[in-house]
Specification:
The complex is a heterodimer. By secondary structure, chain A is of the alpha+beta class. In chain A, 15% of the residues lie in helices and 47% in strands. In chain A, a hairpin with a 3-residue loop joins strand 12 (243-254) and strand 13. A six-stranded antiparallel beta sheet of chain B has the order 6-5-4-3-8-9. Chain B has a three-stranded antiparallel beta sheet with strand order 1-2-7. The chains are: A alpha+beta, B alpha+beta. At the A-B interface, helix 7, strand 5 and strand 7 of A face strand 3, strand 4, strand 6 and helix 4 of B.
Chain lengths: 510, 185
Amino acid sequence: MKNLLLIFFVVSVGSGFGQVTWQVLPNAIIERVDISGVPETRLSMELRADIQKLVGQPYNADVVRQVADGIPIELPEYIAGVTPQPGSQPDRVRVILVVAKIADNDALRNNINSRYIVDAVEIGGGFKTKISDSLNTDLQSMVGKNLDNTRAEELRNRIVKENGGSVSVNRKLRRGNSPQHVKIVYEVEKSDNYNFGFNISGLGAYQSRQGFSIPDLKVSASSTGKGKLWAEIENDPFPLIERYAGWTGGYTLGSESARFDVSYASYRAQWKENTLQADAQSGDSPGLYRLRDTLATSLTASLPLRLSAMGGVDFVELQMQTPTLGFQKANAVKGSLSSTHSRPTESGSGSHSFEWMYQIRSGTKSLDSDFVYTRHKWTASYWYKRESNTVFYASFLAGRATGTAPMFERFSLGSVTTLRGWNKYEIDPLGGNRVLHGTAEYTYKFLTGFYDVGSIWTAGQPGTTRHSVGFGLGMNGCKGKQFFNPLCLVSIKVGFPINGAQRPALIVGM
Amino acid sequence: MLTASLLVLGQSLGVRVDGERLRIDITKARLLVGEPLERLHDGASVTYIVQVSALTARSGSVLTRTTYRYVISYDIFEERFQVSRIQPAPRVLSHLSMAAAEAAMVDSLEIPASSIPPDRPFWIRWEYQVEDPSQSADGGMSLGTLVDVFSRKASKGPVGGASESGPFRLRELPRVAPARGASNP
């Protein structure tokens, strides 16, 4: 039904009367008028009479449209378009008034202007704007299609990002040069010079066998063209084998297209009993540390084909507690390549999104590192959003580390996002240097079902493939007053290990 | 007491009993004004959240509440409004004048009467808020986002309004006559 509606809007409303393959001859006589999509009896006698008065008249697009416009006035839940068709003779025309219910089309329901065709996209305003080639291509790709407000808003946000947040962009819709055609105007203005912020990124999380993470508290100060200074405190047991707690701060200069970052982090590491015992008994352990201080630098640049590349150096000092007390360096060069793609579905009411990333880090003697290793990590994620209440999500992770990587570089599974239901300290308390993991997740409204499969092992030793399934309650994409819906603020998931001796795990807050 | 309607922002608020529900009548509501109206004229959609609550007292606790969510757009060619109710029961009305669009947002407001004690006084509060466009974009919502919203620099205050009326007693309220032939609820 939605596809039919789209065809109807493109042919009968968007493209105008004279642009379909068949054209009405001048002074062609209307031999018949039909109404499609709604019973004629729902129209008033007067309107039906006006419609039938068209029969025998020379075809005039404006006159026919005026009559058709009477239909949605009487039936405000409907929209009407005009489609001329060949008559029984070359100089005759048959007119079909196609009536469709607005509620059947998500795009129209959210904005009546979605029925119009975009014939231009313009950048205006009083500020010189940086627009990358890829963004410009995406902006121009809206031309010739029905207005897609979601897409137009996404591109507005990209204009802001590409200019490093130093501009404000207003999106305006204006009448185009021909009837039923519109142009999108992005008006760009320089934004305020200074901005101070405080936010909590993420609610934090709880895993029934690994404990709590606290929300990351972040303060920031930025100035247009002068970069952004930020500081953050963290306390998190989930991403690494260790629970790390401490602070980090940094400075970011540049924009979405090219950015320089420098940051310093100081974390105290806490180890679970399983890890302490494994470290004492295993010859594979790289050693545990009490403190981890990192000075990180990186350059990030946007490349063609929606690629983003990063390169940099991390200087890491570890205050070791095993095998011997003392300080060791884990300095490493790092790089990554990533890409993000998103496109609306054919109906315009959903979207497909895909992103992937490859990361490499290498500890080397040339940087005076005590840990010599190379770590590769590949991740990919796909989302299919159908309208607003159905989401399919799948992700993939692969990792490989060679040499002697420090503990914070070793892989782990069995937490709040991987092998949910399993406990990473029971699977592999020292982590591994090889990992494979996949997730499939389906969410309908507030109910999610998921399946995780993964394996973590150390090179030269056999690995075990583990599975888990589970369900969750929570809502994504909440808007407005939904802020106060508990399922928008907190999600609850329960993961069940399959064929494992472990008990199910409760996960809250992710 | 039944006529003790409080006028705020120029509108009046009345209450009737219709079976198991309370119907709320709002007149002269001016919702399409200011910056939201400018955004509509620029072809954007604007989301309005309308909430009706029954309270134990004027500033008392909530007995029951119904939330309505509308997406408004303005046809830049026909210069007419469209009101699309997303919540609770979806409904679309198009080709509306400004007054008709405003009326469509306050038409058919109701709350369940079952949570309201028949002999105790209660107040009705009607309020609306225009959703910040930055919240309208798809994206995850978390306590972090919530704190971010409340802590960021406010460029323009939120657009909204409220009206209260009371006290009422359920058994003293006028009742909507059942339609002829309809069963008595």
